[in-house]
Specification:
The complex is a heterodimer. By secondary structure, chain A is an alpha/beta fold. Chain A folds into three domains: 233 residues, P-loop containing nucleotide triphosphate hydrolases (Rossmann fold); 53 residues, no CATH class; 231 residues, Rossmann fold, CATH 3.40.50. Chain A is 37% helix and 22% strand. Chain A contains 22 helices and 20 strands. In chain A, strands 6-7-8-3-9-10 form a six-stranded mixed sheet, with helices on both faces. In chain A, strands 16-17-18-13-19-20 form a six-stranded mixed sheet, sandwiched between helices. In chain A, strands 2-1-4-5 form a four-stranded antiparallel sheet, covered by helices on one side. The relative contact order of chain A is 0.10. By secondary structure, chain B is an all-alpha fold. Chain B has a domain of 204 residues. A two-stranded antiparallel sheet of chain B has the order 1-2. In chain B, helix 7 packs antiparallel against helix 8. The radius of gyration of chain B is 24 Å and the shape is flat. Classes of the chains: A alpha/beta, B mainly alpha. At the A-B interface, helix 3, helix 4, helix 5, helix 6 and helix 13 of A face helix 8, helix 9 and helix 10 of B.
């Protein structure tokens, strides 16, 4: 049982509280989802539950905090370790040992358990997580998903009553994320472990949990069973991503259509919306085919083999035109990143040819190509190094040899465009996550590249920031620029891209209009498409991908 | 860069008791310092090769040695330039440096530089074998068994664990900045240094964030809980391991013996001494090779016994 009374917490140097008057009681065996915009206090709440706040972080704390009968103010994280297990976001930053067995033993060794007990607990947790095949492996050989499971096993070995997971899937690809979440669900279901899960991809978890808590600015703004919270609370305005299946019901109700209840799964959605769709049968989807300009990226029979490594690309030929918004999808290690790194010359073809705006990348330096091709990487923290936002944005122009007057004009314009004017002289690292992302994007776009490449920019990004970025990219491609987006996020692709290229084992397996690629695909379809599949018999087009399109049909 | 990393290959050398390997490297180090004779030093270097081959780490070992060759070249050049001893002058500078006199390059100084390089190669080879065949976790455990404080040992082990991650970070951030028009090898020195800063600063800030996260994760798993810690995987030391351990110290014992007998010395300055070794000193050569590489036989023997 977790009891939190009037909890308020300030980090050492902060003026605003991270948590404010939080009152919360969690019964044993509950599965609780915590969500809210970034900076809302989700992580702080997690840290309170195992005493990292106040013992590790320090700061001002007031109120009562009791976990499994222990007063957190009086008991340290170490003492709480056998009651509360903690799993964090980035698996790479939680592993201490070189091999899996030692990793799992780490906590038990710290608590001086005898060898026999460790051996027994090790077997149990390996089996519970279904990872006994990994036990003799070296940690660095594992995939991120496997690493995260090893971490859960190592926490589980301490036999905690409560498992706290702080965005455990944000660094994972969708398949690993699903696996990790189903493991967590089983732990809750079969072992009765209380689970507190922080997650912003609601569509992944909302059907698994008993209870949903929404935080904003350190306060609990909604708390209850997920259906109730989703129908009463305007989560979207808080920046959390509402699953499309819920959004469509909310919007229909807004239009005065009577739908009972809130669906949490596609299956529920099908039965709730059956009548609505039956009445709309026979409507046609108005298709807008956008015309594209001349080809800007021409890839001919491209092969790439890493030195002493695998062949990552095998005979890839592609033509991408001006004004196209292309999504490149595929499993991990299918060659997506290798492919896009050829477009700005970071990698050169082993065999074959890549031409960008007519320039052969083999004959141009990366800096020369940087005038034409902008590349935005996943983590804005990898971009940012300067002392002020302005310097950060000027950097690329100086490198490319622009003159002073031109630089001044462009910087002003870019700061304005990204709403960064007031931060001009600020230290970029001290900005919030969303603002830093904007700085990173601005620092590339100030060069006005004709081609913009983004490598998984939305991984781990909350919904509001994601849609902000995507809307911007959409506008950028409409101006005649080309956008190439590497992503795992089917919903985003369904909403914004024109064309989808699917890679597998270094080859292009599918390349076509997003509507053809994403509809009726088994695993790859967005939620709304999976919903309308069932209504094909009423004459509903089966290639609807988004909420807006579906609502169009239902008008 | 990943070639500097330990890989579990399961060869007899990998399975050798970590204490034995540590003892072997330490005593090889002593032996290398005791010997002066280039012939002995060369033989010492060659005697480490059977281990490299048995452990199947030839490729990784080579990348260590490539690195070592650069250091050796530097030693040879610097020694030739600054050591004015020796009688066979090969070249003389047309100017004088106050205090030091007229710079000369002598045959003896070059030869001495070469001999020192061979000594260094032998030592680096031994350390390379150790790094490539000892599981870092075992290494850590051995340190703790040798009564070094656990926390310091763990910090050392952790920093080695994060070397590959750091290398990945450097590669990634370099890609980011090159995409923003950074040209690492262009321009004058100040510009180049500034260019590197755009890689170094994100690297450092990311590492700081990482450190806090690791600390949090360790704290959450009861790290440093005050009670005396247990170790799930201990280093098993069987009887045969004790035998191998003794043989691990053999090169050191041999070194001391040779020091007492006055073998293995050599005169570099003012003129190079000849190779006129006495009979017993010649016979020391095969003994040296055997003593150093005997761990290989023992490693095979250990497997036989372990299998029985």
């Amino acid at each position: 049982m977790i009891r939190i009374r009037d909890l308020t917490f300030h980090y050492g140097d902060a003026s605003k509280p991270a948590l404010q008057d939080v009152n919360l009681e969690v019964e044993d065996g509950e599965f609780v989802l915590v969500t809210g915009p970034s900076g809302c206090g989700k992580s702080s709440l997690c840290r309170c539950l195992n005493g990292l706040i106040p013992h590790f972080y320090g700061g001002k704390i007031a109120g009562g905090l009791e976990v499994q009968g222990l007063d957190v103010m009086k008991h340290t994280t170490k003492e709480l370790a056998t009651r509360v297990g903690m799993v964090f976001q980035d698996p790479e930053n939680q592993l201490v040992a070189m091999d899996v067995e030692r990793e799992i033993a780490f906590g038990l060794e710290n608590l001086a358990f005898p060898k026999g007990v460790i051996a027994k607990r090790m077997e149990e947790s390996l089996d519970t997580l279904g990872i006994s095949g990994l036990r003799y492996r070296q940690v660095h050989e594992l995939s991120d998903g496997e690493k995260q499971k090893v971490i859960i096993a190592s926490v589980l070995a301490l036999h905690p009553d409560v498992l706290v997971l702080d965005e455990p899937t944000s660094e994972l690809d969708p398949k690993s994320a699903e696996e990790v979440l189903s493991v967590v669900q089983r732990l809750n279901d079969e072992l009765g472990i209380t689970v507190i899960l922080v997650e912003h991809r609601l569509d992944r978890v909302v059907h698994l949990v008993d209870r949903m808590i929404v935080l904003d600015e350190g306060r609990i703004v909604a708390d209850g069973n997920p259906r109730a919270v989703l129908s009463n609370c305007d989560i979207a305005s808080l920046g959390a991503g509402v699953p499309p299946i819920v959004r469509i019901v909310q919007r229909l109700r807004g239009n005065g259509v009577n739908v009972d209840g809130i669906p949490l799964t596609v299956k529920e959605g099908r039965s709730m919306l059956k009548e609505v769709f039956r009445e709309a049968g026979g409507s046609e989807l108005s298709q807008v085919e956008s015309a594209h300009g001349k080809p800007v990226i021409e890839i001919d029979k491209l092969w790439h083999t890493y030195p002493e490594g695998p062949t990552a690309l095998k005979n890839v030929s592609l033509r991408i035109c001006q004004g196209e918004f292309v999504a490149i999808m595929g499993r991990n290690a299918s060659g997506k990143t290798t492919l896009v790194k050829h477009i700005n010359g970071l990698l050169k073809p082993t065999k074959g040819k890549v031409r960008v705006t007519g320039i052969d990348t083999q004959r141009a330096t990366i800096a020369e190509l940087a005038r034409k091709v902008g590349f935005i990487f996943q983590n804005p923290n990898d971009h940012i190094f300067a002392d002020t936002v302005e310097e950060e944005i000027v950097y690329i122009l100086k490198n490319l040899g622009f003159d002073g007057a031109e630089i001044a004009v462009r910087v002003d314009e870019t700061l304005e465009m990204f709403g960064l004017k007031e931060y001009r002289k600020q230290y970029p690292r001290s900005l919030s996550g969303g603002e830093r992302q904007r700085v990173a994007v601005a620092s590339v776009l100030v060069a006005r590249p004709e081609v913009l490449i983004l490598d998984e920019p939305t991984r781990g990004m909350e919904y509001r920031l994601k849609s902000e970025l995507m809307r911007f990219l959409d506008g950028y491609s409409e101006k005649g620029n080309t956008v190439v987006l590497v992503t795992h996020d089917v919903e985003t692709v369904a909403e914004y891209a024109d064309r989808v290229i699917l890679l597998s084992e270094g080859r292009v397996v599918v390349d076509g209009n997003k509507r053809d690629v994403l509809s009726r695909a088994l695993f790859f379809s967005p939620q709304i498409n999976r919903l309308v599949q069932a209504f094909e018999r009423y004459g509903i087009p089966n290639n609807i991908l988004t909420v807006d399109e579906a609502l169009d049909i239902l008008k | 860069m990943t070639s500097f990393r330990y890989k579990e290959k399961g060869t007899v050398i990998h399975r050798l008791n970590p204490f034995c390997k540590l003892a072997w490297v330490a005593s090889l180090f002593v032996l290398a310092l005791v010997l002066d004779n280039p012939l002995f030093l060369l033989l010492l270097f060659l005697s480490t090769l059977p281990l490299v081959i048995t452990a199947q780490v030839w490729k990784e070992w080579t990348s260590f040695m490539k690195f070592a060759i650069y250091i050796c070249l530097a030693i040879i050049v610097i020694n030739a330039l600054v050591s004015y001893q020796g009688t066979h002058v090969l070249a003389e500078a047309p100017f004088r440096i106050p205090v030091m006199g007229t710079p000369i390059i002598t045959l003896e100084a070059i030869f001495y530089g070469i001999a020192m390089s061979i000594r260094l190669l032998a030592i680096i080879s031994a350390f390379a074998i150790l790094t490539l065949t000892i599981n870092p976790d075992d290494m850590m455990l051995s340190m703790i068994r040798m009564k070094l404080p656990y926390k310091s040992v763990l910090v050392t082990a952790l920093s080695t664990r994060f070397v590959p991650t750091l290398i990945d970070d450097v590669e990634r951030i370099t890609d980011v900045q090159r995409s923003r028009g950074l040209e690492l090898d262009k321009g004058r020195l100040p510009r180049r240094i500034k260019g590197r800063m755009s890689v170094i600063i994100p690297l450092l800030s990311n590492s700081l964030d990482r450190t806090v996260q690791i600390a949090e994760a360790m704290e959450s798993r009861a790290f440093g809980s005050g009670t005396k810690r247990t170790f799930y995987k201990d280093i098993k030391t069987s009887r045969i391991d004790i035998v191998t351990l003794i043989f691990g110290f053999a090169p050191c014992a041999l070194g001391i013996l040779m020091l007492i007998l006055g073998y293995g010395g050599y005169q570099y300055y003012p003129t190079l001494g000849g190779m006129n070794l006495s009979g017993p000193e010649w016979s020391m050569l095969p003994i040296l090779a055997l003593t150093v590489s005997s761990v290989v036989f023992l490693a095979f023997l250990k497997r036989r016994i372990d299998l029985d």
